[in-house]
Write a structure and sequence with these properties.
37% helix, 314 residues, Rossmann fold, four-stranded parallel β-sheet, 11 helices, alpha/beta
């Protein structure tokens, strides 16, 4: 493999890519950041490429971000929503995708409620597959945009202390972040109620801290996750009010720290639960920068997987 291409034909998870892959994606995203801040925000880079967005699970932000990235690159885009498709009539995943591929699609962006579905698909079809979230497993582009946002804001990821707070047990964002940030040389702590921290998670090279104030005092960056009520089959916390009392971040809590920290959130925010508005909308927060960086990162991933040569400037 040359240093100018990704080591894989798919983006199935951060677990399966190298640090040099991540660095290449970041370098490519730097060029696309310039593009999306120009008056004309479009380049013809993927003019001959057709991309299918297959979302078997509801999504707003990720779907819009991928669509915007694809259109900024001038790709042809096919959108597929399982809720209004033949999947409801009993069609299998493979049948659905084969029908889409019969339309001569080059790349598939897929979100699916079953962990491992994108991996299964990548072994069965000839197109590049990008995992846009599979169950509680991974969400690689979210982790890439989170790490990229830290690098843009603080200058580097290496050596930074990052705490991931909240519902770690049900979060694909947490797992992808752990893989990505540790590969980039960051120190990671997880913080949340004991019921929402998976057993043996320390085997991934992270520490666990149950006291939020201690975790915030330690960290440079707090990546705050929402409580994933839709993925919880039983009650893991007594109430959202109690969760907010112990693990919610408000301005008063931040003011007690003897330093300034950076606040991140993958969205959507449950305001008044994990983050209060006085923090989400404050100067501490880089949440809106994450959204903008997400488009640049997804443009970079699409561009590199399409086999285009790396760029320093578009």
């Amino acid at each position: 493999m040359s240093s100018g291409s990704l080591s894989t034909n798919h983006l199935l998870g951060i677990k399966y890519i190298s640090r040099s892959d991540i660095e290449l994606i970041f370098k490519t995203a730097d060029g696309f950041k310039d593009v999306i801040n120009r008056p004309i925000k479009k380049v013809p880079s993927l003019r001959d490429v057709t991309i299918a967005n297959l979302f078997f699970e509801n999504s707003t932000r990720t779907k819009i971000s991928f669509e915007l990235a694809e259109k900024r690159l001038s790709a042809d885009v096919v959108n597929f929503s399982a809720s209004s498709s033949s999947v409801k009539k009993g069609e299998t995943l493979l049948d659905t995708v084969n029908n889409v591929l019969a339309m001569k699609v080059d790349m598939v962006v897929m979100r699916h409620p079953v962990p491992g579905a994108p991996m299964f698909l990548s072994k069965k079809i000839d197109a590049s597959v990008i995992n846009a979230g599979d169950g509680t497993h991974e969400h690689p582009t979210q982790a890439l945009l989170d790490a990229y946002s830290i690098r843009r804001h603080l200058g580097s990821v290496e050596g930074k202390k990052i705490v991931i707070i909240g519902d770690i047990k049900h979060s694909r964002v947490a797992l992808s972040n752990i893989f990505c940030l540790t590969k980039m040389g960051a120190h990671i702590k997880l913080c949340g109620p004991p019921t929402l921290i998976p057993k043996h998670i320390e085997s991934l090279g992270v520490e666990v801290e149950y006291d939020l104030d201690k975790a915030l005092e330690w960290c440079d960056v707090a990546n705050v996750l929402r409580i994933q009520l839709e993925r919880q089959d039983i009650k893991y916390i007594p109430s959202l009010r109690e969760y907010n009392l112990y693990y919610g971040i408000d301005k008063e809590r931040l003011n007690r720290l003897d330093k300034e920290i950076t606040i991140m959130h993958p969205g959507p925010i449950n305001r008044g639960v994990e983050l209060n508005s006085d923090v989400a909308d404050s100067d501490h927060s880089i949440i809106l920068q994450q959204v903008e960086n997400g488009v640049a990162i997804r443009m970079a991933v699409l561009y590199l997987l399409a086999g285009r040569k790396p760029i320093s400037k578009i």
